[in-house]
Structure to design on (332 residues):
């Protein structure tokens, strides 16, 4: 069953619900809200939460399998079953509070306008967040580009003296200049930001010749292909060394071996494993200033719930690691 309210915890009782219930009915045993982790009460409000979850179920350019528009909802639903205590950290990271926005429905049918709309929305959300942790749940990977640009602008406005680094977990480089005639395709996400940020991609194994050359031609792009992940842990040090002091983290779930996450539009054989990925993530959050996170390209498969849970757990692990270090913008 999903996480239930603890009657001894005032933050999770029926009398402190985020739903507007008729007077006198608050204390009945209602299910927990269908928000990330099923949190309720003050820790689930925008004002009381240290982390904001932004679902963006945008899907318009998927090139093979579809269904990423259902990803945010599936992740949130599965998260209600995630154990809140994290034994690795020795505490309950949800105690810091997690607020879940309604899904942001950007326009479809005009990719350029959709990306501009999302960039403007991301900028407004970052301004309102005032140093809170913001995690975006896509949707296809195209949504990462406007979010990254908004974070880069915000970082520069707050005095960042070096380019923002992007750490990309991905089976693909997403460096195509255009795909199917669309510059705003999911396959072009990093091409839309590469002039503004440094890029480190780990786990890539489906790479076009043009993308490989585009990466090799730039000193500020580092690629750690998937085969290096199978040779030991040295790749973790390499990835960390290539990152600047402030990092935006974009996690395409096709990074994982498809035996772990088959629920993605363009699965590639081989790929990342759970514990090595967590090892890099924990070090990045501990040793760099992470400014933003997105998790994208989860396309849930009806009747196969394990990948939904894995991705929900991944998001919660990152929230936990992030909460161990101050947000680099938290003093604004």
């Amino acid at each position: 069953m999903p996480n239930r309210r603890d009657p001894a915890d005032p933050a999770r009782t029926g009398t402190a619900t985020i739903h507007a219930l008729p007077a006198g009915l608050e204390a009945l045993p209602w299910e927990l809200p269908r928000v990330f982790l099923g949190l309720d009460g003050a820790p689930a409000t925008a004002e009381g939460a240290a982390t904001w979850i932004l679902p963006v179920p945008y899907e318009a350019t998927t090139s093979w399998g579809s269904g990423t528009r259902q990803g945010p909802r599936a992740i949130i639903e599965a998260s209600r079953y995630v154990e809140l205590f994290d034994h690795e950290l020795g505490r309950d990271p949800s105690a810091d509070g997690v607020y879940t926005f309604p899904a942001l429905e950007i326009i479809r049918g005009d990719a350029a306008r959709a990306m501009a709309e999302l960039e403007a929305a991301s900028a407004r959300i970052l301004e309102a967040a005032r140093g809170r942790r913001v995690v975006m749940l896509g949707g296809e990977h195209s949504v990462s580009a406007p979010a990254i640009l908004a974070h880069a602008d915000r970082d520069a406005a707050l005095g960042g003296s070096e380019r923002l680094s992007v750490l990309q977990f991905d089976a693909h480089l997403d460096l195509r200049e255009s795909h199917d005639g669309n510059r705003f395709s999911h396959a072009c996400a990093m091409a839309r930001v590469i002039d503004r940020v440094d890029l480190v991609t780990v786990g890539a194994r489906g790479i076009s010749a043009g993308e490989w050359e585009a990466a090799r031609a730039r000193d500020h792009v580092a690629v750690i292909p998937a085969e290096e992940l199978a040779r030991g842990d040295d790749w973790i040090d390499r990835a960390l060394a290539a990152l600047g002091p402030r990092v935006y983290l974009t996690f395409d779930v096709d990074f994982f071996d498809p035996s772990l996450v088959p629920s993605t539009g363009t699965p590639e054989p081989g790929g990342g494993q759970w514990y090595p990925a967590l090892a890099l993530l924990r070090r990045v959050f501990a040793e760099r200033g992470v400014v933003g996170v997105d998790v994208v390209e989860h396309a849930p498969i009806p009747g196969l719930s394990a990948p939904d849970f894995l991705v929900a757990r991944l998001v919660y692990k990152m929230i936990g690691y992030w909460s161990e270090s101050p947000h680099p913008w938290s003093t604004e």
